Amino acid sequence: MVRTTGPAPTFMTSDDGVPVYRPGLDEDPEAPRAMRMERDSLGEMPIPADAYWGIHTARALENFPITRRALSNHPNLVIALAMVKQAAARANKEIGVIRPERADLIDQVCQEIIDGELHDQFVLGVLQGGAGTSTNMCANEIIANRCLELMGKEKGDYANFHPIDHVNRSQSTNDVYPTAIKLAMVFSLKSLLDEHRLLIDSFSAKGQEFAQILKVGRTQMQDAVPMTLGQEFRGFATTLGEDQERLSEIIPWLNEINMGATAIGTGITADPRYAEAVRRHLSEISGYEMVTSPDLIEATSDTGIFMTVSGTLKRAAVKLSKICNDLRLLSSGPQAGFGEINLPPRQAGSSIMPGKVNPVIPEVVNQVAFSIIGADATVTAAVEGGQLQLNAFEPVIATSIMQSLAWMTNACRTLRLNCVDGITANVDRLNEMVETSVGVVTALTPYIGYQESAALAYEALATKVPIRQLVIERGLMTEEQIAKVLSPERLSGVVPATGAIPLPMVAPEN
């Protein structure tokens, strides 16, 4: 072990509150730090003595100072990597290609990572060249050095426990990395589906709460026929429910893996029994039934499933964004806009206009949707960019989708808790608009005819006299008759027919 001067590590907090390693940021460059020397095929490098990662990770930290967002920002990916390594260790032990005591150590360390330990050691940036090789090697080094520590050995003493020969046995980045990111996406999708369902329930509850409140419907931003506010919110819930189904359908497709493919799908260096063994163990560890692809060559080169995930997520985000547009419109005002609903006030809305409150929660969800749309374009380009037996761009595919899943999950949560649950109806405003709306005349056309109804609509607009009053003044219907035709149940379609209404009907056409 040597002592040297140079950048020391710092720890920052990720979006999920996870401590994230950032080498050399805001540290005294002259501060001495204990180091160890490690060697690879390119030469030697000093590694912080207390770091569990090693020289391959160190080179990646130098080579890819791009995003400054570490792997630990995506805990589901770290956990998925550990599960894959754990399954590999169990499979290697079962088929006898690694000594049981070594396999058991790897198994133990992987479980520590699954349980939340050592995440801060996954310091590597999410965006990297090499098709995920640096990520795989980072995991191998962390596991190997923790195994060495448990053996009472020094970190970096790879003669006693090796990141590749032992931790990476029977594996390649090209089957480990895609399998891990698929599994991580399954975990993240489950979290999203849980939050998405709670949001659906919130909209449904508002639909029940507002079931008896009439309002004016709109098409092409113009007044249309009446409906209830409850129908509008139930429509939001139904819209989201469709995406709940589409997102759920993706999970079985993500469970097809290529473990055992090794480099390009031929299975070189892996025992023929390994693929089935690792599949079975990964199924047990993850709780999801994994399926080995019938064509490992194809499975290693084809990344089409990620377009399916990204595209389905984009659909859900776009539809949610449309709902947020509606919430912003319906709450616009409070005096010169629609003013039909009231969103919970979340913050002072202006540095210059006192009392202004903006719809900030729907706005941030809109921005999440815009980001997901952009990420989908990135995923599409990266999937298309693959060549021959491997797609080198899986890291940008992974980080784009993982970020979109995390942001969408957070967006559903904040929209529910900070907006939808607290929405109230501006009942007086809604009643006023229904009473003065010419759209209600549509309900009269079966009784007084389209031409007479159109004339009434123009007169109501010109005189500001309600349709109901004009119909009675002209003797076209009695007050009791029009009350029945224009009842909330009939206008909203909740009750399609309210019983016979004896009226002079429009003369039949010749």
Give a structural overview.
This protein is mainly α and 510 residues long. The protein has 3 domains: 2-169, Fumarase/aspartase (N-terminal domain) (Fumarase C, Chain B, domain 1, Orthogonal Bundle); 193-249 and 302-427, Fumarase/aspartase (Central domain) (Fumarase C, Chain A, domain 2), CATH 1.20.200.10; 437-510, Ribonucleotide Reductase Protein R1, domain 1 (Orthogonal Bundle). Helices cover 54% and strands 10% of the residues. It has helices at 55-63, 75-95, 100-114, 133-150, 163-167, 173-209, 229-254, 274-286, 296-301, 304-330, 360-384, 394-418, 427-436, 445-448, 450-463, 467-473, 479-485, 488-492, and strands at 2-5, 9-13, 19-23, 32-40, 43-48, 214-219, 222-228, 256-257, 291-292, 341-342, 424-425. Strands 1-4-5 form a 3-stranded antiparallel sheet. Helix 7 (229-254) packs antiparallel against helix 10 (304-330). Mean pLDDT is 88; it is low at 1-26.
Quick structural gist:
Residues 1-31 are annotated as: Disordered. The chain contains 18 helices and eleven strands.
For the residues shown, what is the average pLDDT?
88
CATH architecture of the largest domain: Up-down Bundle
Note poorly predicted spans. Answer: 1-26
Computed CA radius of gyration, to the nearest angstrom: 31 Å
CATH C-level category of the largest domain = Mainly Alpha
* Helix-strand makeup class: mainly alpha
End-to-end separation: 104 Å
Tally of contiguous helical segments: 18
Strand order of the largest sheet: 1-4-5
Question: Which homologous superfamily in CATH is the superfamily of the largest domain?
Answer: Fumarase/aspartase (Central domain)
Order of helices and strands: EEEEEHHHHHHEEHEHEHHEHHEHHHHHH
Helix percent band = 40-55%
List how many beta strands DSSP finds.
Answer: 11
Domain count? 3
Overall, the morphology is elongated
Beta-strand portion reads 5-15%
Q: CATH topology of the largest domain, anyone?
A: Fumarase C, Chain A, domain 2
Largest sheet: number of strands, sense, barrel closure: 3 strands, antiparallel
EC number: 4.3.1.1
InterPro entries: Aspartate_Ammonia-Lyase, Fumarase/histidase_N, Fumarase_C_C, Fumarate_lyase_CS, Fumarate_lyase_fam, Fumarate_lyase_N, L-Aspartase-like
Protein name: Aspartate ammonia-lyase
GO cellular component, one term: cytosol
